[in-house]
Amino acid sequence: MNAIKNITLTGIIGLVLLAGLCGMQDLSAQTVWLDELDLSTATQGYGVPVKNKSLDGNTMTIAGQTFERGFATHAVSSLLVLTEGKANAFTAKVGLDDEMKGHEPAVEFEIYGDGNKLWSSGVMHLGDSAKECSVALTGIKKVELVVTDGGNGNYYDHADWVDAKFETTGVTTLKTYNPIASEPYILTPKPSDKPRLTGAKVFGVRPGSPFQFLVTATGDRPMEFSAQKLPKGLKLNPQTGIITGKLHEKRTYEVTLSAKNAKGKAERKLRIVCGDQIALTPPMGWNSWNCFAQEVSAEKVKSAADAMAKSGLINHGWTYINIDDFWNNHRDSEDASLRGELRDANGKIVPNKRFEDMKGLADYVHGLGLKIGLYSSPGPWSCGGCAGSFGFEELDAETYAEWGFDYLKYDWCSYGNVIDGLPDNDPYKVSSLSYNGGGELNTAMKPFKLMGDYLREQPRDIVFSVCQYGMSDVWKWGGSVGGNCWRTTNDITDTWVSVKNIALDQDKSAPYAKPGNWNDPDMLVVGHVGWGNTHPSKLKPDEQYLHISLWSLFAAPLLIGCDMEKLDDFTLNLLTNDEVIDVNQDPLGKQATCIQTIGDLRIYVKELEDGSRAVGFCNFGAEIVDAQYSDFEKLGIKGNVTVRDLWRQKDIAEIDTNTQKLAIKVPAHGVLLYKFNSGKY
Length: 681
Ligand code: GAL
Prior knowledge:
The chain is of the alpha+beta class. It has 4 domains: 31-177, NPCBM/NEW2 domain (Jelly Rolls); 196-274, Immunoglobulins (Immunoglobulin-like), CATH 2.60.40; 284-587, Aldolase class I (TIM Barrel); 594-677, Golgi alpha-mannosidase II (Immunoglobulin-like, Sandwich). Helices cover 16% and strands 31% of the residues. The strands form 10 sheets. An 8-stranded parallel β-sheet has the order 29-28-27-26-25-24-23-32. Strands 1, 2, 5, 7, 10 and 12 form a 6-stranded antiparallel β-sheet that branches. A 6-stranded antiparallel β-sheet has the order 33-34-35-40-37-38. The radius of gyration is 28 Å and the shape is globular. Bound molecules: beta-D-galactopyranose (GAL). Beta-D-galactopyranose is lined by residues 289, 324-325, 382-384, 411, 413, 467, 491.
């Protein structure tokens, strides 16, 4: 990269000679433009860093003024530049790009030198003219250019650093960098060839509902499954491990499952609870949105289900194959496959041309031993503009049950219009009222209670996933409207900022998590994700370990969001660690909270059914944490304990917590996920 512009070699020699003649050193000050550096190391809340164009590829424009050079990014953004004392000054103009006209973004630009704030723009809005900044950098080794979300979330925050340049001493190059390691590494050991039973240890079903539970195990195939004390009414297919049938009595059954292959035999208990509550452990599966978005089709859903089985993920408890938005017809799309009547003459919802046979699709997925989910909105339109359930809730619940669906995600979307009294079928006014907090509590609860009640009346168990982004403290009432899980946050993206901010916001809802009622911090962003245009997750490997560890500690629904046909070894390693999954699926159903914070290290603790504790040493900082830990009592851990590293599936220490310390080395943006057991295994 050529970091020096407008200076010829003879010019440089001349300047150096002149400096020598004058007995001075610094006459050769140079200009290094920001856009001459490698900007790909920047982290940002959306999209990728762009040079000399806006984030969307237009001419950079701030309050009507255009610029040719600069760095376009999206809040929350950070770019680190190693100046090593070689830069004297940084100057730039900053502002929000006009391309987001019609929205209300706000940001704050900040400049840090060696960790100290040197300059800040104050909160800027769209239409504010470009602000000039000029900071002295003499002696500074590390400069960070930051764009915050201005305090109103990072929606539409297209931010421009224009005419941005460093003045350096002498002929030099400057380097950008990202302190987080980028080489993937595998921690999950390969499963043994002997059978090992995996997945949920407790399963809830309602009396009279069709029963379907897949006994899952790792180990060589063929494998033969059996069960002792299986209640009357249920039968187990010894080849597939699928248990089907019906229970009629409200009761708890303790069943012993076995799996046998040429190498050995394994046993494990399964508690079947026939009662009111389902989803006794957090739902695990896949959802089409983070991968296909509006491009979803029955073929893609089938392929995802096939891949769930073929990749072996099915053997670790992954169950649901969930279709998100765009399975039915759209109000005004130009895509012919999304156009057609919204409902038939009887008001029954009509799937679009890509989903010709919903019942056939559900049967296919069930045949693999998996379950299937669907999506709708309580408003007239889904978030993407397809028909919602408003006014047809009862019929829709009946239709989903008739097709054989096991899961419904019900997304607030245009319900804001209903509250505001806009015409129910107004095609163009799907407002962003979804973020207004939902107004009165009754208003917020009403549409979910309505659908929750109808689902409950169906002759099959349908997991009810409430999606309204965490408004009106949904965790306090989500269970009372029939919800089995509820989103606690806006949509996740595959950026560090998104995962971090969501993670840091989960503690307040934690006390409300319990079997049948789960807080949902949104779907997983590992593997190839991209909302219709996939790319490998932008999260660094350690960030992905942290993401999966935290979602397990949170007892969150685990919904893979990636292209299931592009699963690489690293992603499979993240999704097939049974000891990590066991933390998520623990029957006690507690959600971890952060018990202690030491600098950027946050320590999360989850109580487990067997009396042990899962502990996540989570490093949210950009530097490695290398320490001797001794505050065990704070974590509720006493006496002699065995410490097990869950990712490596290995006991790593036996310690007396009264007298001994534990050495912890946590990568930047990474995690150690340990289990502390009093007594031996
Ligand atoms: C959003 C929801 C996403 C996805 C999308 C579909 O409101 O949070 O998870 O379902 O709608 O349009």
